[in-house]
Design brief:
heterotrimer, A mainly alpha (about 80), B mainly alpha (about 250), C alpha/beta (about 300), B: about 250 residues, mainly alpha, about 75% helix, elongated, C: about 300 residues, alpha/beta, Rossmann fold, Alpha-Beta Plaits, six-stranded mixed β-sheet, four-stranded antiparallel β-sheet, 14 strands, about 35% helix
């Protein structure tokens, strides 16, 4: 156990920024998915899963291909 | 010139508003950290997961391992991410028809292409600079890099290769006016490079050489002078493809 | 009167399909020129040709003395264009978008601000600060007009500016176009005949790729009017019966009496007749659906 903590401490300079960046991006994207429920294709559950489960490629796919334009509002 | 900067400003504003800046910064920072991290953790992971009693003599990771990771991750993951990010820069406007008004206001068609390409180039510069700096900083902190040769030239090879792919993507995207057109054309071009690379003779000109030679550059087996032909060819090809895109777009029906 | 647009013998084919056949059209300055035709008759194609967005198969187009070449933008400095469904960058607001347009037309910085404000007031968007992504169709259409008028063009081309709008939005657009006539020439296409009737000075009609009719609206009115629509304080059938023995041509059309009165003496005579018969007029107006009639006449 002690060994593991030492290991963790050793890799903290890597893990900390990695976790912050990955988690931050995933959460930011998830919030965007929920707050803008218009997608070019697919549904909310699908996009949430993609954004949260596929590391950084998921958010990328969502923002580039999945994010619908806000002006899809009804006239 | 005013027109060019005006349109560039729009491109910049759009890229920020469509989260491209955010994605480039986050993803290429992650990639930058990932390289030294993978290099450092690989031996430890092996130890942990090897069956009890197996003796593996893994050498201590060095600065070279960290950079090897860089030249594995950035050309693969990094370039794919980047091409995907900018694969819709023309098709989005062509599909929606947002350019029609601006073009009828006297916006030059060549301005559209050059400004878009320049913006993507700025982003590519930012992306490479970011992950290079981060990998460099970590590697310098954990290891001694003094043995490594041509660090900057090696990364410039990757940078130049990226420029060519970017130009090809823009061309494919303009030609087919669909989001998938650009990526598809780029994929085909890369496959063509790989097929050409089967023939050893192609090494003297194949742009792909810029990616495969980076390791030998770092170890000093190759010097920049060995690579100048593919280097120049890649740069010229990129310029040529942009010019081709411009002439093509001039004749495009909107 | 100066002619802004000269279209001479323009032919446009898409493959084997001839969309425009030998079109001749002259648009005089400071007029509202209505371009009427059914959907698919080639209106948009002709407009795109005028903007240099499509190559011609034959003929020539000259705008303000500058001939139009495909792929070039030289003649476009005299033109403002409003596409049928104008698309803007959703991440801008109206002012930002117009500023981008102003930079592209090389408008000087000092000129920009005042002009943009002026136009936003003209189209009624001065108080809107939200992003274009939240705009309704009518607002987009109005921003489209502002954008088109930005560089004080000699010619304003509007492609079906009213067709996607509700009656209120339509009336707004028509009134803006009419105001725009003061500083430019308006060329607008529509398949809604009554829109053209309301604001046009000249009308041309396109049918299956050829201009089947082109004239001033006033001439046109004189040519076919002479028909007036009356309603009375008594039922229309009764009125007709009482007027039975008079020499006027009459017919009943949806509870209204349509009387043919081609000249002033006939009109006066009819009024006199009404007075002697002691029939009170509730309303009287010239028959206005004339373009619709005309379409039917031409097609029939």
């Amino acid at each position: 156990m002690n060994n593991d903590t030492a290991l963790l401490m050793e890799y903290l300079p890597f893990l900390l920024p990695l976790i912050i960046l990955q988690l931050g991006l995933a959460i930011f994207s998830a919030i965007h998915v929920i707050r803008h429920p218009h997608y070019r294709f697919g549904n909310q559950v699908m996009w949430l899963l993609i954004v949260l489960l596929i590391q950084f490629i998921g958010p990328l796919i969502y923002f580039v291909f999945g994010r619908g334009d806000d002006n899809s509002r009804a006239n | 010139m005013n027109q060019w900067f005006g349109f560039l400003k729009k491109e910049w504003f759009e890229s920020v508003k469509t989260y491209k800046l955010l994605l480039v910064i986050v993803i290429f920072s992650i990639l930058g950290i990932l390289n030294p991290f993978t290099a450092k953790i690989t031996p430890t992971l092996f130890e942990q997961f090897m069956p009890e009693g197996t003796f593996v003599n893994l050498p201590e990771p060095t600065a070279l391992d960290s950079w090897l990771q860089f030249y594995k991750n950035v050309p693969q993951m990094g370039l794919i991410v980047f091409i995907l990010l900018f694969s819709t820069m023309m098709s989005k406007e062509l599909e929606k028809g947002t350019l029609v008004i601006l073009l009828t206001k006297g916006l030059h068609r060549s301005t559209v292409i050059t400004a878009k390409f320049f913006m993507a180039l700025c982003y590519w510069t930012l992306a490479i600079a970011l992950s290079f700096t981060i990998t460099y900083a970590y590697t310098a902190y954990y290891w001694d890099q003094s043995q490594l040769q041509h660090l900057l030239f090696a990364v410039s090879c990757l940078y130049v290769f990226g420029i060519l792919l970017l130009a090809v993507t823009l061309w494919g995207n303009t030609l087919f006016a669909t989001p998938y057109g650009g990526t598809l054309v780029t994929l085909l071009v890369v496959i063509a490079f790989f097929i050409a690379a089967i023939f050893p003779k192609s090494a003297s000109w194949n742009p792909l050489e810029l990616l495969t030679a980076t390791t030998q550059l770092l170890t000093g087996e190759l010097t920049p002078s060995d690579l100048w032909i593919p280097y120049i060819i890649t740069l010229f090809a990129a310029i040529l493809v942009v010019l081709l895109t411009m002439t093509h777009f001039k004749r495009k029906l909107l | 009167m100066t002619i802004v647009v000269q279209i001479n013998g323009v032919t446009k084919r898409f493959g084997d399909h001839e969309v425009l056949k030998d079109i001749h059209l002259h648009i005089p300055e400071h007029t509202v020129f209505g371009f009427v035709g059914a959907n698919g008759s080639g209106k948009t194609t002709l407009m795109k040709c005028m903007l240099g967005l499509l190559p011609l198969n034959a003929g020539s187009i000259t705008i303000a003395g500058e001939s139009v070449t495909f792929g070039e933008t030289k003649s476009n400095q005299y033109v403002g264009y409003l596409p049928d469904v104008p698309e803007f960058y959703p991440f801008y607001n109206a002012t930002q978008y117009l500023e981008l347009c102003a930079v592209i037309t090389n408008m000087t910085k000092s000129e920009r601000r005042g002009r943009i404000q002026e136009l936003l007031e003209l189209v009624g968007l001065a108080d809107t600060t939200s992003f274009i992504s939240t705009y309704s169709r009518g607002m987009k259409q109005r921003l489209g007009i502002a954008q088109a008028l930005l560089n004080r063009p000699k010619l304003l081309i509007c492609d079906e500016p009213t067709s996607a709008l509700d009656p209120a939005g339509r009336a707004q657009i028509l009134s803006i176009l009419q105001q725009a006539k003061a500083e430019t020439t308006v060329f607008f296409s529509t398949h809604i005949v009554s829109d053209a009737e309301q604001i046009c000075d000249h009308v041309a009609m396109l049918h299956e790729g050829t201009i089947i009719f082109q004239d001033e609206l006033t001439n046109l009115k004189q040519r076919i009017t002479g028909e007036f629509v009356f309603t009375f304080t008594i039922p229309v059938a009764e009125a007709r019966d009482r007027l039975q023995n008079t020499p006027f041509e009459m017919k009943i059309d949806s509870d209204q009496l349509v009387v043919s009165l081609p000249d002033e003496s006939k009109q006066l005579a009819f009024m006199q007749e009404l007075t002697t018969q002691k029939i009170l007029i509730q309303s009287m107006q010239p028959k206005t659906r004339l373009l619709e009639q005309l379409v039917l006449e031409v097609l029939g």
